[in-house]
């Protein structure tokens, strides 16, 4: 049993049968396998920086493509002892040592956002393409620095906004471009989830605005609902002109768990995001596109799409993972679905949110508390109305009262 670089030997190993395997899919996945066979390509070497926490999810997702011969896991790096490292895979506490020794072709960066710039830059300079967890970085200066690093190294960064891999988004964009909705005036996101006290203590940066003097912004907008925000921005892929926010928290954390965010895009189209992690009934993060000739609805995680004239939502098949898309780009130049440049509008929004006043905490008497969950009573109805009307919470009457000053991020 190999020792762990920087750690005592004899770490526990996980049996392959203990790892969950996602169901197989055909289509784009089969085409990628065929391409590799035709070209006589060997499995792409993949390394993971950030092997614990959410990194465990990435490790599970690597099982199936490894079994299909698309990739081989060649290294794990984490400053903390790695949980259940797989047999035969070297483990490092120093990512730079791993990059130098195993020379991976693809590196997955799954670490807190404030570490992304340095780690991704190191991977690019080591000659690897990168799949980086969202959010990519937290200001445009860092985003532009990574874009420049891509150009200098000739490598690429794919940001793990899974919603951009949705074939339903492709179908929706085509419908918008063809004029099926007429002129688009508003895109709305409505999401109501529940996260308990344990969620906000899952790591040292959970619920924090800054960590060691660096921005973190581990709130509802930048983390759990980031996929929906990015997908809403990607409907039109237009520059961001203005960002406004009204946000709050139901527990003593530094970030928001409930927010309304209004983004004005070039041309005057607005994106209204109304989300909470203290919700009542669950709403996954549905996206609605309002045009002067009709409305479209997209379930962002289920690839369900209803266009004008459709009696019901239709499943749009053909989704592939962003790792598979990155492998296809490397094999045949297939365009990246979530390349770093495409995610720049999201980083613009996050940068503006950093400048906004901190979220305010609501009074305890407007909450229902049970089993570690704090529910903001009446929040679903308020957010649903905000999403439909394009309004921020502080522009409406809410059950928790007139919540203080305007929380506009800019303008």
UniProtKB/TrEMBL annotation:
InterPro entries: Gfo/Idh/MocA-like_OxRdtase_N (IPR000683), Gfo/Idh/MocA_Oxidoreductase (IPR052515), GFO_IDH_MocA-like_dom (IPR055170), NAD(P)-bd_dom_sf (IPR036291)
Organism domain of life: Bacteria
Domain GFO/IDH/MocA-like oxidoreductase stretches: 171-297
PANTHER family with a match to the protein in the record: D-GLUCOSIDE 3-DEHYDROGENASE, UDP-N-ACETYL-2-AMINO-2-DEOXY-D-GLUCURONATE OXIDASE
Organism listed in the record: Catellatospora methionotrophica
Region (Disordered), start-end ranges: 1-27
GO terms assigned for molecular function: nucleotide binding
Low complexity biased stretches: 8-23
Residues in Gfo/Idh/MocA-like oxidoreductase N-terminal domain copies: 45-161
Protein name, UniProt field: Oxidoreductase
């Amino acid at each position: 049993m190999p020792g762990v670089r920087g750690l005592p030997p004899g770490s526990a190993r996980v049996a392959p049968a203990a790892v969950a395997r996602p169901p197989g899919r055909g289509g784009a996945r089969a085409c990628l396998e065929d391409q590799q066979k035709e070209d006589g390509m060997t499995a792409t070497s993949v390394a993971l920086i950030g092997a614990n926490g959410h990194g465990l999810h990435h490790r599970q997702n690597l099982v199936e493509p490894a079994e299909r011969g698309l990739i081989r896991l060649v290294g794990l790096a984490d400053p903390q002892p790695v949980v259940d490292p797989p047999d035969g895979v070297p483990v490092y506490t120093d990512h730079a040592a791993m990059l130098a020794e195993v020379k991976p072709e693809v590196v997955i960066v799954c670490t807190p956002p404030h570490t992304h710039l340095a780690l991704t830059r190191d991977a690019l300079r080591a000659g690897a393409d990168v799949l980086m967890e969202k959010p990519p970085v937290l200001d445009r200066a860092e985003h532009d620095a990574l874009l420049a690093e891509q150009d200098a190294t000739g490598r690429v960064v794919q940001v793990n906004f899974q919603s951009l891999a949705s074939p339903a988004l492709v179908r929706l964009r085509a419908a918008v471009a063809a004029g099926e909705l007429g002129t688009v005036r508003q895109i709305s996101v409505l999401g109501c989830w529940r996260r308990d006290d344990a969620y906000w203590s899952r790591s040292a940066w959970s619920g924090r605005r800054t960590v060691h003097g660096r921005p973190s912004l581990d709130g509802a907008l930048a983390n759990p609902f980031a996929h929906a925000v990015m997908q809403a921005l990607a409907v039109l892929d237009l520059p961001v002109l203005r960002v406004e926010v009204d946000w709050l928290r139901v527990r003593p954390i530094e970030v928001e768990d409930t927010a309304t965010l209004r983004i004005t895009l070039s041309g005057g189209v607005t994106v209204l995001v109304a989300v909470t992690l203290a919700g009542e009934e669950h709403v996954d993060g549905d996206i609605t596109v309002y045009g002067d000739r009709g409305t479209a609805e997209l379930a962002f995680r289920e690839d369900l799409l209803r266009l004008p004239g459709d009696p019901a939502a239709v499943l749009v098949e053909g989704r592939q993972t962003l790792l598979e898309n990155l492998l296809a780009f490397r094999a045949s130049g297939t365009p990246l679905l979530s390349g770093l440049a495409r995610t720049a509008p999201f980083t613009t929004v996050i940068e503006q949110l950093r400048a906004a006043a901190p979220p305010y905490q609501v009074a305890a008497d407007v909450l229902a508390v049970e089993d570690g969950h704090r529910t903001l009573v009446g929040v679903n109805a308020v957010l649903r109305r905000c999403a439909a009307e394009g309004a921020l919470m502080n522009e409406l009457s809410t059950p928790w009262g007139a919540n203080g000053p305007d929380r506009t991020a800019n303008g």
